[in-house]
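Hi support team,

I'm opening this ticket because the web form for multi-chain structure prediction keeps timing out on my end. I have pasted the exact lines I submitted so you can reproduce it. The total is 589 residues across two entries, so I didn't expect it to be a heavy job. Is there a limit I'm missing, or should I split the entries? Thanks in advance, R.K.
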Amino acid sequence: MARIFAYIIHKAGVADDCAVELIAAAKKIDAAASPTAIVTGWGADFDAVCDSLRTSYAETWKISNEALAYPNAELIRKALVKVLPPESIVLVAHEHLGIDLAPGLSIKTNASFVSDVLAIDGLDGTDLRVVRQEFGGQVSAHVRCDISSGAVVTVRPGAFKPVESAPVSGIVVDKSTDAGELTAGRRYLETIAAEAGDVDITKHSILVSIGRGIQEKDNVALAHELAEALGAAVSCSRPVVDAKWLEKSRQVGSSGKTVKPKVYLACGISGSFQHLAGIKGNPFLIAINKNPRAPIFQVADVGIVDDILEFLPELTNKVREMRRAA
Amino acid sequence: MEILVCARRVPDTSENEIQLNRAGNDIERDDLVYSINEADNYAVEEALQIIARVGGSVTVVTVGTEDDEEILRREMAMGASHGVLLSDDAFYGSDGRGIATILKAFVQRGKYDMILTGVQAEDGGTQVGGMLAAMLDYPFASLVNSIEVHDSKKLKVSREIAGGNKEVSEIDLPCVLSIQTGINEPRYVGMRGIRQVASAPIPTHAASALGIDPATVGETGAKVKRVDYFVPVLGKGAEMLQGSREENIDKLIELVAAKGGLK
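Hello R.K., no limit was hit. The queue was backed up. Here is the completed structure from your submission:
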């Protein structure tokens, strides 16, 4: 059995949730597996991360280098290529650093690559059997990945529930000198914080959230009218921002805002995992979508199959009537 | 600036409800509406905006069959100078690495300053750009949501990271960038524009012309293979309201009020 490594993302001295999720994923490959954490960085914060991993990983490989103070995927890849044994299986979280790092790492280690894995069904000879989603989550696929020369697997954050296990007293192995000197054709300059918008959607208890089903910029008014009648705010999914129909500060999702309303009205939203990742606090989720197979209906509390362009104005009128009568 | 954009023709998920076929081993492909992969279209628009500022030309390339020529023509109608089809029976069934191998062979026949791909295709692979960059030993950035040309040797790019923040980097040319949707507003392509390029020649290259060993691509070379499709059952699923629209509206208002919404 090839050795399994979990590349751990960290920030400000704290390991990402993926640290425990990747152990759960490794156990799905091989129940007896004891994966090795591999982590890159620099400074006191980084040492704290390495130390914190000792309770969950029997072995942690650290690569400490000033050039790795900011996580630059090209530098990390070069360091990992020098340190990883041949035929390793490397697990990485499928988020912005993993997306940058993993495909190139698979080429440089001559390993198979499979991305955004939701479930692992185990090994069958040299084939790793995994589950992925396609077409925006409308269908899933069983995929076989030949791991005879190793594999790089990106794992969807939140898909693997951490397994309960007693804390271990692991060791940290310093691999810094093996990584050697590191230079890259891409150099980090700065991080620009997201712009604050006119409305703070994170502060509202009802959100009227619109997706691609709103179809045209002019129709966005339908959502604003309903929101006004309900005393709610209008939020949206990615396609609405991509089309420039609403500002980025109204986007709910992993690349937008995280919201915790009491009621979330998902209107014409298909329900990609990136969008759902931004909805926290278990709100009452009502989905209205004309596609009865939209993935949003799998996670909503209540679903209505209807065309939002007709449904929303009628709903608004009814709410207004009730308000007048009250 | 010579820019190559790698694009793909895919079933348009905004136009289609994706369903399984009867055998359950594939999606139902009859009557699907195909179009250019959305992120790839943003990549072409970005390339066109860059050359409008600094000069140069845009070539759009795809790995596929004659059916895929329609997206090349569409992007030429947008303003791309050239469309190129890489087509060979040996390419059929390629995994991400196979597609990157084919594209690499094509890239090495030309001289490009910048290679753009869409961040992901309908299979959500998010892989070909990063693989191609590693094969070429070019620097790479994924999830790119702005590009500024510094000079003939480097760019300033930003990547979309968590929470809508932007990570800004400098990147040496030549490089590979995978483009995030929303980076720009792709121009509209009318029927008239498409008619104007209807007879433009589309050069086609096969494996032999590209010097590709057929064993490294296609089904033979693929280490990653899809076995079948299925529709997952996640959670218990929504309680579907089956009444008339009016009844559903009444019920919805009642629920919103009960769940602490209406004030």
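A quick check on our side: Chain B has one domain: 2-221. Let us know if the file doesn't open in your viewer.
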